[in-house]
Amino acid sequence: MRNGSEDKPSSEMYKRIGRVLRQKRKASGKILEDFANDDISTSTISNIERGSTKVSWEKVVIYAKELGITEDELPSLLEGEQDQQQRLLNQLLNLERRIDLEGPDQVLKKINRLNIPSISPLMANVEYLKGRCYLKKKNWGKARLHFHQVLNIIKRYPDFHKTNLKAACHKDLARTYYFQENDLVKALDHVNLGLRSLITKSESQTEYSLLIGKISYLINLDQETETAKKTVDKLWDERDKIYSIDAKISLHENRAALLNKMELYEEARESASEGISLALKNNILDRAVELLNTYGSICINEQDFDQAEEYFLLALDTKPKIQKKYQKEYLLVTTLTLLGKLYKAQGHTTKAEKALLEAVELGKKTKSQEVLRYHDALVALGDCYFSKNKLRKAIAPYSQALEIAKIQSQAHKKFFWVEKEHELWVKLGMCYEKFDSEKLKLCMERSFRFNVEYIKRGGGEYMDKQFSSKILLHIGEPPDNRSTSLEGEPPDNLI
């Protein structure tokens, strides 16, 4: 175990031995006091099991003997633990692959049947896998708790350096904030933490997923267009190295959305078209719908209304499969909203109203999954009524959208929803201006308060963005490709 009798094992070796001896004691069903005697105290045994280097090697050997282990047997015992940890790691990797095949509930049951000691560093992998299961179940809160638990475990093992588990955790934490609260700022913060946490550059797939997620959050935040463009260009050049089909599709969608925003419509169409083909080729219909929506929004901005309609109607044709296989009908709320805006731009107000009423009805049905899409459908319907001078009819959808924005801004304290709230006070004021001076006054007061708060926060180009006629689609989900963070050998110093 030592290179000469005077050499002391490393601190990591102390930790490994301490964990193994603790597991042996636990397996015997005895407590610390059962092994204390004149040669070794209870506190010394506790320090040994915690891997403290303050304890002399002689005391470690004494305690090992109390457990029936000689000094010469310690190396083989550690090797056996290494093999066992590798087997457990392989089991966890296999279970991760089964989340999509068997469903998260079955995998959670199998995880709970695994015999992994609570003191094992592999508990970080166990917690991560549980988090992935709850992500699949769309239980964002529980997923987040497990991912934070992973980060807490990793803090106790700073040399957890042969995997990118920490980076993968931040990637998935970003997704929980994106989906549960639409908190794009926190999502972006976690992506940046994940990128800073990348250690093993050989695991580039996690880096690709983080970067693609970063682009998505930047575009939706309408921030750092140049940063997003540079990142997109880098990934686009390396897209053949990205293994995950889902990540590749997300890259195509993000690139198309960004180019659409930059008014580079020909390149945007090309990127969206390639993404649609990739999604359909791999039978990933939900991602195809998102890209069809993206392609249609590009066509609207180019005034190519006929082709835009063609792509939106193609997306709507997927409804039976989207409903049955993916349970993602909410994707079509965006399709119908965009179709309604298209008809409105063409002057087909009756068709526009019909499409938007359908979008609102579907949005109401699926609002628990995607409240933002429901909100946007309500606003679009109100805009449609307003354009037809049906001011009293516009008030109802505007008011419903306002209630959503108020609830979300109060629940999550995010300026994103406060901005939405302000936009609706302005729109309602434009309606009440014609027939209700008292309510107009209320709308003006609320709008004034917003502007004061906004100036305190630094101001900006908010009003220009809110009333722009350009269609800038709030792009879809960041990539959910299976992380490879559980792969590879367990680090020697973790067991």
Percent helix: over 70%
Strand fraction: under 5%
CATH topology of the domain at 78-160: Serine Threonine Protein Phosphatase 5, Tetratricopeptide repeat
Question: Mind telling me the C-alpha Rg?
Answer: 28 Å
CATH class label of the domain at 78-160: Mainly Alpha
Label the overall shape: elongated
Order of helices and strands: HHHHHHHHHHHHHHHHHHHHHHH
Strand runs, count: 0
Mean pLDDT: 85
What is the architecture of the domain at 78-160 at the second tier of CATH? Alpha Horseshoe
Largest sheet: none
Distance between the termini: 16 Å
Give the helix/strand class. mainly alpha
- Number of helical elements: 23
Indicate the low-confidence ranges by residue numbers: 460-468, 482-495
Keywords: TPR repeat
InterPro entries: Cro/C1-type_HTH, Lambda_DNA-bd_dom_sf, TPR-like_helical_dom_sf, TPR_rpt
TPR repeats: 289-322, 375-408
Protein name: HTH cro/C1-type domain-containing protein
